[in-house]
């Protein structure tokens, strides 16, 4: 399934990879506390959003590079689109909420 070149698959992968990146950030920096406490701290301290977004978008950059190098351009376009949506959402969350 991951060998196909499909825009929808790229969008799906582009939204799942940042979640995996966020969990990776949680396990490396905040693991002794619970996941619900992590989200509570994240809601209180907006400065953490920058670190989480950077790790999350690195996960998308890795996927994007893999799909570009294997010439699956529609999937890479979906990953790039979801990366842009994710980044704009994170900026709105950080600066306006």
UniProtKB/TrEMBL annotation:
Residue ranges annotated as transmembrane are 7-27, 47-67, 79-96
Q: Please verify whether the record's keywords include Transmembrane helix.
A: yes
- Keyword line: Membrane, Transmembrane, Transmembrane helix
Name of the featured protein: Uncharacterized protein
Q: Which organism is it from?
A: Filimonas zeae
